[in-house]
Every structure is written in C-alpha cells, then in structure tokens.
Write a structure and sequence with these properties.
single chain, about 425 residues, alpha/beta, 3 domains, four-stranded antiparallel sheet, about 15% strand, globular, binds pyridoxal-5'-phosphate
Length: about 425
C-alpha cells in the first residue's frame, strides 16, 4: 500500500505529487563535507535583505486554515472584477491551446498594436507588455536605478515598488501621506531633486483614493525639471468613474519622464494568466524592451488580453456593476458605527476598525472562520494594525460580507 506521507496534495491541481525531502538534506551534507560558503553568503547584498511582500488573494493558504475550500472562500482581499474575465477571453484561450507548443511572440506585437489602438493617440512603440504589471515595476527599477540612487514612494502604497527599488540596489525613501491619506505635493517637490524615480499610484492601493489632477501635474513637471522619472501606476483606473479623463496616458508626449502602468489583472480579470502593460515615450519603451526577459508573456495570456480588449460590452458592464456595488457597500458600511471608511474611487474600500476593539489580524481570522477573506492592512508602511481593505464584489457576496461583519461586531439585524 502507498505511504500517504510520500505525497503532497497540490492545491493548484487537486492532485497528489511525490514529496521530495532529499534535495535539502543532500545540499546540507555537501556543504559540511566540502566546507563551502552558503548560497546566502554568495547572494548580492541588495538581495539578501529582501523579503516577500504581503498581498491579498492568498486563498491557497486560507483554505488550509478553515473547513472551506478555496472555491467556497469569498475573497475580498484582492480587488478583481466581480464579473470575472470576458467570455470571449475564455473562448480565445480554448481556441489557442494548440499554440502552447511554440514560443510566444516575444514582443507581443498584435497586442501592443491593439492596446495602442484602444487609446487612440499612441502607437505600438509606446507600449510594452509584461508578465503581470509587477514584472514592469521590477524592470523599470532595474533599468533606471544605479546602486544607491533614491526613489520616492508614498506611504501607504503598493509594496512591490519598495522591493523593486531595493532589488535594483536603489534606496527607497517613503513620504508619509497626510492625515486623510492624501498626497501632499509640496513634500514631494521638496525632495524630488534628490530622487531618480518617483512612484505614484492612481487610484492608490490601499486607500482607493485618486490623486487630484493638479497635484499629479505639479509633481510630474517638477520631476521633469530635475531629470526625475515618474512611474504612475494606473492599474485600478478602469474602475474609476470617468477614468479615461483622469488617465495621464495622453500626456506621454508632453512628459518624456512619464511611464504609465496598466494591468489585465484587475478589470479584465485575467489575474492568474499574469499580463500587464506600460505606456511611455518611444525612447523609454525601447530601453525597457531591450532589457526585458525574452518570451515574458505566454501565448494564452496574449490572446486572452486581445479578446478582452475587444469586448467593450464586458468592460462597460463591469464598471457599471462596480459603481453600483461600491455605492451600496459604502452606504452599508457607514451603518457600522465602529467602522470608519475612507472615500473610495476604485473597486475596494479602506476601513479603520479601531473602535470595534479588534485588530485587523483578529477580525481577518474571525471572518475567515465564516469563509470570508479580507485584507489585513497592517503590512502597509504608514498604516497601523487597525486597517482592513475589502474589495467591491457582487451584491450577493457583498451582502455575505456585511452579514459576517455584523455577526462579528455583535450587531443584531
Ligand atoms: C497598485 C498595484 N499595482 C500593481 C499590481 C500588480 O498587478 P499585476 O502584476 O497582477 O498586474 C497590484 C496588485 O495587486 C497593485 O495593487
């Protein structure tokens, strides 16, 4: 009979795989025998200090802790289109399964052309496609930062900017947001001359707030004067009302220092396929394209992204659902008197839960027991242990969230 401890049950495919206990033991033994330096000692200094960022969406881990499996857990910790991907994207994946036996187009030519067309005023040479927009954050930092050069990063914001800067050998400098978690332009502009890159996220994760247009332009103009690059993450902008008017994609010819980041993870729901893109001057795109990893975006992600872009109806419907549900959730959360929420422009809401008596970690644990995953925001620089973030999902899911909140807060309905 099979010894079950020989196997690991894989949560990705629900199948069992052989455990491999031997590799680690073997390398320890070899090190002892040969008296060699550990691989930790051999690593670059900038890498040794790195730690993985904390993110939402860890349903793979969550299902190990509770009696729910990952399909039953309602994930409010990652902020993805509640309608999921376009049906047309799924059909395109099905039709193109045969192409996995050849290399994908390394430069994503068709997709870059389609992205450029979708914006109108840019060409395909203004577009680079990445393995998730995360790849482009790292590529940008590695391409432009020399060892010791400084990058300005607001706090709180998305954690991968800091890690990418550190990995590239640069030095992140955090600029604390105002009491209301807004960006104060003067603090940025005072420090810009010492920086090489400024990272901004609009709307910002985790605050869900838009940066006012005048503030953005002031910071970009100042950056340009001092030869500083502006990395503007617009990954959640499709969820914002009038997002097209807010975007700075149409400013790339005016500001050669501007790089705008976008993703197929959020509104397009192609999260697991890993695909995102960036828009900038032709010079910037050429430098980045020369430096990027070849075949970085797989062929199924490319065809799914093409089909998603073409499905305008799905995007329109998704924005409408998010708009309605954001208003519903905001209104209902306002009834929970021990919660204090920040105004949300994107498809997620940041909430201060201090008055509830729970820390974010405690509430997350309690909610998970009810099959609901929320984001404990204490890992964000600039936030304390009393902030949570929840995504805007479908009405039924939002009602489940609210019911679980009420139950845990002891509110009778
Ligand atoms: C603000 C922001 N930018 C970028 C990313 C990375 O997205 P992806 O690599 O899935 O495109 C995330 C993911 O959560 C994010 O919140």
């Amino acid at each position: 009979m099979d010894n079950p401890s020989k196997y690991l049950y894989c949560s990705q495919c629900n199948d069992k795989h052989h455990r491999n206990k031997t590799i680690d033991n073997r390398s320890k033994k070899l090190k002892g025998e040969l008296n060699v330096r550990s691989t930790w000692e051999l690593a670059r200094d900038s890498i040794k200090s790195l730690k993985p960022c904390v993110h939402g969406g860890e349903v793979w881990n969550a299902e190990k802790k509770v009696s729910y499996n990952r399909n039953e857990i309602v994930d409010f910790s990652s902020s993805i289109n509640p309608l999921g991907p376009s049906q047309k994207a799924l059909e395109a994946i099905g039709k193109n399964l045969g192409s996995i036996q050849i290399y994908p187009d390394s430069n994503s030519e068709w997709l870059r052309e389609a992205i450029a067309t979708s914006f109108g005023e840019i060409g395909s040479n203004n577009v680079i496609v990445g393995n998730g927009s995360t790849e482009l954050i790292y590529l940008f930092a590695e391409t432009f930062l020399e060892k010791g050069e400084m990058a300005l990063i607001p706090a709180p914001t998305f954690g991968e900017y800091e890690k990418a800067v550190k990995k590239a050998g640069g030095e992140p400098r955090h600029i604390k947001m105002t009491r209301n978690l807004g960006v104060e332009p003067n603090i940025f502009t005072r420090q810009i001359k010492d920086a090489k890159i400024v990272f901004l996220c609009n709307p910002n994760n985790p605050t869900s707030a838009l940066i006012p247009h005048d503030t953005l332009i002031k910071i970009i103009e100042d950056a340009l004067k001092h030869d500083v690059l502006l990395f503007l993450d617009e990954d959640f902008l499709e969820f914002v009302d009038e997002g097209k008017q807010v975007s700075l994609v149409d400013k790339i010819s005016e500001f050669p220092n501007l790089f705008v980041l976008r993703s197929f993870t959020k509104v397009f729901g192609l999260t697991g396929l890993r695909i995102g893109y960036g828009i900038a001057s032709e010079d910037t795109i050429e430098i980045l394209s020369n430096a990027k990893t070849p075949w970085n975006v797989n062929c199924l992600a490319q065809v799914a992204a093409l089909a998603s872009l073409a499905d305008k109806e799905h995007i329109k419907k998704s924005s409408q659902v998010v708009k309605t549900e954001r208003a519903f959730l905001t209104q209902e959360i306002a009834q929970l008197k021990c919660f204090s929420q920040y105004p949300a422009d994107a498809n997620f809401i940041l909430i201060n839960i201090k008055k509830s008596g729970f820390t974010a970690a405690q509430l997350k644990e309690k909610m998970l027991q009810q099959g609901i995953l929320i984001r404990d925001c204490s890992s964000f620089k600039g936030l304390d242990e009393h902030h949570i973030r929840v995504a805007v999902k479908s009405r039924q899911e939002n009602e489940r969230l609210l019911e679980a909140f009420r139950k845990n807060l002891g509110i009778k309905t």
